[in-house]
Amino acid sequence: MKWSPGDRSNIEDRRGMRMGGGGMRGGGMQLGIGGIIVLAILSYATGTDFLSLVGGGGDPLAPASGPAEPGQIATSPTEERAVDFVAAVSQDNQDTWTRLLGPRYERTVVSLFRDSVESACGMAESATGPFYCPGDHKVYIDLSFFEELDRKFGAPGDFAQAYVIAHEFGHHVQNLLGTNERAARDRSTGPNSASVALELQADCYAGVWGHEASRSGRFQAGKIELEPGDAEEALQAASSIGDDRLQKMGTGRVAPERFTHGSSAQRMQWFQRGLQSGDPARCDTFASVTQ
Ligand SMILES: [Zn+2]
User: Using one digit for the tens of pLDDT, what is the confidence trace for 101-116?
Assistant: First the structure.
């Protein structure tokens, strides 16, 4: 993937803000990238810490420069590079959707946080994974997730990371188009649930952006240009966070009736459909997933 830093106007930097307390509280629907939150709920219900099976193990992007002065953010060159990366991918996603949707698209920001964050959807911790909050229209990411994606979920590569960001922008598009209200009314789970349809559509929308980014000769500051092998990285990422795989990592067995995001095969299939067509209209998961 070719990319270079643009400006950071697509980023809201909350890394320096510390939240008191912990736990996931508060209302509203968080639209995440995977079923990681399911593991937290399982842990709570069973007393077994499933999150430790997939998470934990230190902070790979831990600041190298010591504690922050008030108003400053302790960071490292590696972490700043990651911020530039998120900014560039976000800018390119928003430019693409502005072109595709015209005035229906409203620009938003990606809010970077560490450990935990307070959003209009309540308090969230890093273990939730990246998510979109429909209440305040923002994407939330703790940069340490990218390391998790590589180490714990077996999905390395910059386009794998870009897919995760693009998936969350897919939820923003759904919010603007009113699609996620359909899913909000139906809180059921399972392979044919509205939740799965919504998540697979966000994967397809991520592919739509990937299609745009695969046009050659578009490379410039704040723009992405895909290279050979990038699509495979994203497909690997989509596969690695399928509900069946996450459930297997967490409990050793697959329970389709609890699917919220779709299986690995479905997630790859819908991302691929967006990537090949570049057409959001081809992403009508509700017609083919929900019965
Ligand atoms: Zn999602």
Answer: 999 999 999 999 999 9
d(CA 140, CA 110): 6
Quote the tokens at residue 165.
């960001």
CB neighbour burial string for 24-36, b if at least 16 within 10 angstroms, e if fewer: beeeebbbbbbbb
Which residue in this structure is represented by tokens 């994967």?
A: 203
What b/e readout covers 180-198, taking b as 16+ CB neighbours within 10 angstroms? beebeeeeebbbebbbbbb
**Gap from CA of 262 to ligand 1 centroid (Å):** 10
| pLDDT band (50, 70, 90) for residue 256 | very high
Token pair for residue 275?
């990537």
- Ligand 1 centroid to Cα of residue 95, in Å, is 20
| Residue 271 alpha carbon to ligand 1 centre in Å | 12
- Tell how far the Cα of 238 is from the centroid of ligand 1, in angstroms: 11
For residue 154, how far is its CA from the centre of ligand 1 (angstroms)?
19
Pair of tokens at residue 77: 């060159």
Which has the higher per-residue pLDDT, 64 or 238? 238
Tokens 């560039």 belong to 88
Centre of ligand 1 to C-alpha 35, Å, is 9
Cα(36) to centroid of ligand 1, in Å? 11
**Cβ within 8 Å of residue 193, ≥6 positions away:** 186, 259, 260, 290
Cα of 260 from ligand 1 centre, angstroms: 9
CB atoms within 10 A of CB 282: 15
Identify the three-state secondary structure at position 75: coil
Question: What is the Å distance from ligand 1's center to 200 Cα?
Answer: 8
CA distance 22 to 45: 17
The strand pair at 11-13 and 31-32 is best described as unpaired
Across all residues in the chain, what is the average pLDDT?
A: 84
In 10 A of CB 215, how many CB atoms? 11
